[in-house]
Specification:
Strand order of the largest sheet: 5-6-4-1-7-12-9-13
Oligomer: single chain
Helix content: 25-40%
Number of helices: 8
Radius of gyration: 17 Å
Mean pLDDT: 88
Low-confidence stretches: 159-178
Distance between the termini: 19 Å
Number of strands: 14
């Protein structure tokens, strides 16, 4: 198993807590959050990680070096910020395996990543997104699912799916009670190394808003539903939650 971890986030909303650290290095019970993600990958059988890093890359490289508990660690450095999509595209060019797991460096998902890779292969998809159910999707936006495929996206605060050429959506495929409930992207993907990027795509772009959304009809990404614990540490209150709720996942 090979994985890309997007670890270039600056953590603007967490600045008062980070004291100059990159967001993935946010301390959780005295250890960097990124250690929790790498430990989880190790348990899933991952043998190589590509850390996509940005301006503060030296802090991460000095901490992890070339390996972590037996996992080979390599670095893909953005000379300028490329957004999530640009960072993934750059890192995929350095991947060795045909199907590559992609994680956000500020999001934890308690999931069996080996099972996700098997699901991806069984679906024959170019892209698979892990999705989790939420009673209120207003903070995140949501995905519209039909027959284990994603056919549309809803923006944050929207009650109507963004229109796509995939045809009409069937909201019955998503739990609709309460009104704001639904499936959200957990920021974890499996992508083919040779993924076909649309011509004219900018160097800097968002993987979800600039790629998955406009290309949803062509891609029909597979949706892998996960019941496990999900936490995005991007705001102070959720970083506070992490101090107790993620301790069990520390190395």
């Amino acid at each position: 198993m090979e994985a890309i971890v997007l670890a270039g986030g600056l953590g603007t909303r967490l600045a008062s807590r980070l004291h100059g650290l990159p967001k993935p290095m946010a301390p959780v019970a005295g250890r960097p959050f990124l250690e929790i993600l790498l430990n989880q990958l190790r348990r899933s059988g991952c043998t190589r990680v590509l850390l996509s890093v940005g301006l503060e890359h030296a802090i991460i490289q000095d901490h992890f070096g070339a390996s972590f508990h037996g996992i080979e660690v390599d670095y893909v450095v953005e000379s300028v910020p490329l957004g999530t999509g640009g960072a993934i595209r750059l890192a995929l060019a350095e991947a060795r395996e045909e199907s590559v797991l992609v994680l956000n460096g500020d999001t934890f998902l308690d999931a069996d990543y080996a099972a996700m890779l098997r699901f991806h292969a069984s679906e024959g998809a170019a892209a698979t997104l892990a999705v989790v159910h939420r009673d209120d999707v207003s903070r995140y936006g949501s995905v519209v699912i039909e027959d284990q495929r994603i056919v549309g996206f809803q923006e944050k605060g929207s009650s109507n799916p963004r229109q796509t050429s995939a045809g009409p959506t069937n909201s019955g495929q998503i739990s609709a009670s309460p009104a704001n409930s639904g499936w959200i992207s957990a920021g974890t993907y499996v992508l083919q190394r040779n993924l076909a990027w649309p011509p004219g795509l900018a160097e800097k772009f968002s993987i979800e808003f600039d790629f998955f959304v406009p290309e949803v009809a062509r891609l029909r990404p597979a949706a892998w539903k996960v019941d496990g614990f999900f936490l995005d540490i991007g705001v102070p209150e959720d970083l506070d939650r992490a101090q107790t709720e993620l301790v069990q996942f520390l190395p």
